[in-house]
Specification:
The complex is a heterodimer of chains A (88) and B (568).
Chain A lengths: L5 H32 L1 H4 L3 E2 L2 E2 H31 L6
Antiparallel strand pairs in A: 1-2
Helix pairs in contact in A: 1-3
Chain B lengths: L2 H22 L5 H6 L6 H12 L2 H14 L4 H25 L4 H8 L3 H34 L3 H51 L4 H4 L12 H11 L12 H17 L1 H4 L8 H38 L6 E2 L5 H8 L3 E3 L7 E2 L9 E3 L3 H4 L1 H4 L4 H39 L5 H24 L5 H25 L5 H25 L18 H19 L5 H9 L13
Antiparallel strand pairs in B: 1-3, 2-4
The chains are: A mainly alpha (88), B mainly alpha (568).
Chain lengths: 88, 568
């Protein structure tokens, strides 16, 4: 058993799922939200030479995707350390 | 030096490099052959994954596709990148901790079922063959266009190179050649894009040039100009689409979950040393992919403005065919551009209505771009090398999954569990060789339906692998019966819908007949939901997974103790 006790084990998993939920909400909002469902409303806003909704659909969502993975990586590595389940 | 000689030199040089790497990275064991010994550094694995992922279609066709689709092109941009978020957050780290060689391995072991394993093997092989046929064709097309050899010779040269490094080096050889191929293809993509961005908008970065004003001093934004041109010429406004919102939503979702479920992508995360590295290399992979995927839509917009202005002229009255630039004549010979002087005025005119006199193939946007923009000959040669690199790296990754599925999942885990590592390695090489020959055959004699079956590959991955793996990790009580019936239901549903609209009754393939307005390309999303639904319904009526399986699932949920990938 890698965890100190069962409480730690379930706490780690709960924290993990909470982090996943938060990041996946952002993932959904920038792509399906801003890029697809609300694209017309956002297109009324000008962002440099882009209509904002169009920018999210063809550029912005991709940048956010990359950032999300690195945030996840940093947070998970910290969490692994906190619970003592990281790889040495 | 002329373009021809330069192209031979640059493409030949890149081949010599791939072969040298293959000799250096020979595989000595099945562990080397299947997962590169589990010792690939995460940044390199990120590059290899990016090269594996970006196929001839991404390199050659995607920018052109977007150029003609405008906003709707976003389904590919978001769909083929967003899946990596799912992969990094929900699949890769856990599968790495599980530590086996293949996706069917995970499905077979997690669901303690040979049936599940067999279903997964056949899906994996089908998905990979679908994909690889198109790649070999891509190699042939690039060869024939730039080196003026015929397509058959082109395919055979391509097969020879892939054969050499796949059969010799397995995953190890493939990974390190893919790193080199990534560098070649991204350089070849970015260089012309930067040139064109500077020319059209004065910006070095295509990503910012996309939203900038034109360099002609008019102060008009590129995209406003493009919207204006498009409506004047009877096309749809560039920044708004023609597909319905629900269809865009479903296609994007199907491409995302399909990406996350494609076996040749998942298997890449078995090659890194640690769980931490799996997370990191997913991040790098997407960052490397994003470089091309954020350039492509910019390139699409530049190329479209460029093309319209070149053909229609600055006054939008058409330009004389007799004085047309040489690239138009060159590409006319390949059949990718066609001119029919309907009104007999000797002038070319391109539009979206009855005034149109031009036929322009979408592939031309990337391939002919350097010529349209009058770039130096070495850039044209570079684009050829990049196209070949994109096609070769993807084929090699797919062929490896096919050979692993045969030698490991079918032979070792099903029919001949007692064969030695050495014999298994021999069969893996043999399977890779046979797979290359079959792929080459399809490259030379392409079945007419290659483009149609790509929807299949994503739909099947979305409706079979993705839900099965997700449930395998996040629901520890999910049992074999639930997972198998879910996979079968998902596949049957998705396949039936696609086969009906693509093959049985293609005439009916219009939005009015689609369920809820979802096209066959997007039906995988619904297939995925069917899979989840059926799996949970069956699970509720049967016993939960045995205790030792539940412990196995708990053990993959944290990183500590991930050894190297092994067969036991």
């Amino acid at each position: 058993m890698a965890f100190k006790n069962d409480d730690d084990k379930s706490a780690y998993w709960r924290e993990n799922l909470a982090l996943l939920a938060k990041l996946l909400v952002v993932w959904f909002v920038v792509s399906f939200g801003a890029g697809i469902l609300f694209v017309e409303q956002l297109n009324t806003i000008q962002f440099f030479g882009f209509k904002l909704g169009f920018w999210f659909a063809q550029q912005g969502s991709i940048y956010v995707f990359v950032a999300l993975i690195f945030v996840y990586m940093a947070k998970m590595n910290a969490m692994d350390k906190k619970y003592g389940v990281d790889e040495e | 030096m002329d373009v021809q000689t330069l192209t031979f030199l640059i493409v030949g040089g890149s081949f010599a490099l791939y072969i040298a790497i293959a000799i250096w990275a020979r595989a000595g064991s099945t562990n080397d052959f299947y997962v590169a010994g589990g010792g690939v550094p995460p940044v390199m694995n990120g590059m290899a994954t990016a090269a594996d992922w970006m196929s001839a279609a991404s390199f050659i066709s995607m920018a052109g596709l977007i150029s003609f689709m405008g906003y709707d092109g976003a389904v590919y941009l978001m769909g083929w990148t967003g899946g990596y978020v799912l992969l990094a957050l929900c699949l890769a780290p856990y599968l790495r901790k599980f530590g086996k060689f293949t996706v069917p391995d995970f499905i077979g072991d997690r669901y303690y079922s040979q049936t599940a394993r067999t279903v997964a093997v056949f899906c994996a092989i089908f998905v990979c063959f679908t994909y690889v046929a198109g790649q070999m064709r891509g190699v042939g097309v690039v060869f024939s266009r730039f080196l003026e050899v015929d397509i058959v010779t082109g395919v055979i040269i391509g097969m020879g190179i892939v054969f050499f490094y796949t059969v010799l080096g397995g995953m190890k050889g493939i990974t390190y050649t893919q790193v080199a191929q990534y560098c070649v293809l991204i350089f070849a993509y970015i260089v012309p894009a930067v040139f064109i961005s500077m020319m059209v908008t004065g910006h070095i970065l295509p990503q910012t040039g996309f939203g900038a004003t034109l360099a002609d001093g008019s102060g008009v934004f590129l995209l406003d100009k493009l919207d204006g041109l498009s409506t004047e010429l009877g096309f749809n406004e560039y920044t708004s689409g023609t597909k319905s919102t629900i269809d865009v939503f479903f296609i994007t979702f199907a491409l995302m979950v399909g990406t996350a479920g494609l076996p040749h992508v998942i298997v890449r995360f078995f090659t890194v040393p640690k769980v931490r590295d799996a997370r990191k290399s997913a991040g790098y992979a997407l960052a490397f992919i994003a470089i091309l995927y954020t350039t492509a839509p910019s390139l699409a917009a530049f190329a479209r403005v460029n093309m319209i202005e070149t053909i229609n002229g600055p006054d939008a009255m058409g330009t004389s065919y007799a004085e047309a630039p040489t690239w138009i004549k060159n590409w006319e010979q390949t059949g990718l551009i066609g001119f029919e002087d309907k009104n007999g005025d000797g002038k070319m005119f391109y539009s979206g209505d009855e005034r149109n006199e031009m036929r322009v193939d979408r592939d031309i946007m990337v391939l002919a771009n350097p010529e349209i923009a009058n770039l130096p000959a070495w850039v044209i040669a570079l684009v050829a090398a990049g196209g070949v690199a994109a096609a070769l790296s993807t084929s090699a990754g797919l062929l490896l999954v096919i050979s692993t599925s045969v030698s490991h999942d079918l032979l070792k885990r099903n029919f001949a569990p007692n064969i030695t590592d050495k014999a298994e390695l021999f069969y893996a090489r043999l399977a890779a060789a046979v797979a290359i020959c079959i792929a080459g055959y399809f490259g030379i004699n392409p079945p007419g339906f290659v483009a149609q079956v790509v929807a299949f590959a994503f739909g099947l991955a979305a409706s079979s692998f993705f839900p099965a793996i997700i449930m395998g990790i996040f629901s520890k009580r999910m049992n074999d019966k639930g997972a198998v019936s879910g996979m079968l239901a998902g596949i049957a549903f998705t396949a039936a819908y696609i086969i009906y609209f693509k093959f049985v009754n293609p005439a009916a393939n219009v939005p009015e007949n689609w369920w809820f307005g979802i096209s066959p390309e997007g039906i995988g999303t619904l297939g995925m939901l069917v899979n989840f639904g059926v799996a949970f319904a069956v699970f509720k009526m049967t016993d939960e997974a045995p205790e030792e399986i539940q412990q196995l699932v708990e053990s993959i949920r944290f990183p500590k103790g991930a050894g190297e990938a092994s067969a036991h």
